[in-house]
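Entry
Fold in C-alpha cell form

___
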Amino acid sequence: MQIADRMRRKIEEALAPARLEIIDDSHRHAGHAGHDGRGESHFRVLIVSDAFEGRSRVERQRLVYDLLAAELKDRVHALSLTTRTPAEAQES
C-alpha cells in the first residue's frame, strides 16, 4: 500500500472528514533535503472535519501528526496541513 493510501485510510477512520485532499508534491522537491528519489516524501493535505471543532490550529495539527506518526518516521519528510471545520471551509 502506498503512503498516501495509508494516510488517507488513517485520516478517514479517525476523523471522518467531509473533505480530504492528499497531494503528493514530492516531484517539486527533487534535489532538496529529505528527497531521496523514491517519492512520497512531501505532501499537502487538506482536511475538513467536525473533529476539529473547538480545537486550536496547533491542536488540530498535533492530532494529524499523531495519526500519521508511522508515515512521518518512514518516508514522509514534509507535511503541509490545512485543517478546517465544515463551517470554516464554507467561509473560505
The chain has four helices and three strands. The first strand starts at residue 19 and ends at 24. The first helix runs from residue 3 to 15.
